[in-house]
Amino acid sequence: MKQIGVLLVALSALVFAGCTTQPRVETDHQADFDFSSLKTFDVAETKQDTKDSILVSPFTLSHIHSALEGELGKRYQNAATGAKPDFIVSYHVVIEEKIDPRSYDDLYGFGYYGRPYRYPSPFFHGPGTGLRVYNQGSLIIDVVDAKTEKPIWRGVSEKRLSRSMAPQQQREVLSRAVTEVIAQFPPVN
What we know:
Layout: H1 2-19, E1 24-29, E2 40-43, H2 58-73, E3 77-78, E4 87-105, E5 108-110, E6 116-118, E7 127-145, E8 151-161, H3 167-182
Helix pairs in contact: 2-3
Organism: Cellvibrio fibrivorans
Domain DUF4136: 25-187
Pfam families: DUF4136
């Protein structure tokens, strides 16, 4: 009996993990750049200067900074204080309010166990529309060649965010986004 309980818990965890939306990650890079020459990095401080980023907590930005240093530190060396790095990483967080228009038919509903049924009254018939307002979070990571000061790589992660997320939950989502974006760096030609 105990084995069945453990199996049900494990199965539930897999089902819930499959229901979470994964962030969408896109990257772009300078095609003729030699990424194998990069050895040292520095993460630049971000500025909260636009209306889209002013709502992001400074503690969350500090967390992203640390997550970037940790992920990049696994493959590259952090530049010593005063030394010029090979590349500089900057990041931006944008949280936008989006509207998702949906249409549905009021004639049908769902009963017990998800079985569809039909409302008997003609008052419920007709197409309806609904607007769903949600937050779209974007983490943008730019890599700049420190010698030429020109961008060489960009990674963007986008995900729908729940309005009820606590700051700690936001940081966990952003940490996973940092990991997923940096996993795409350097690009494979």
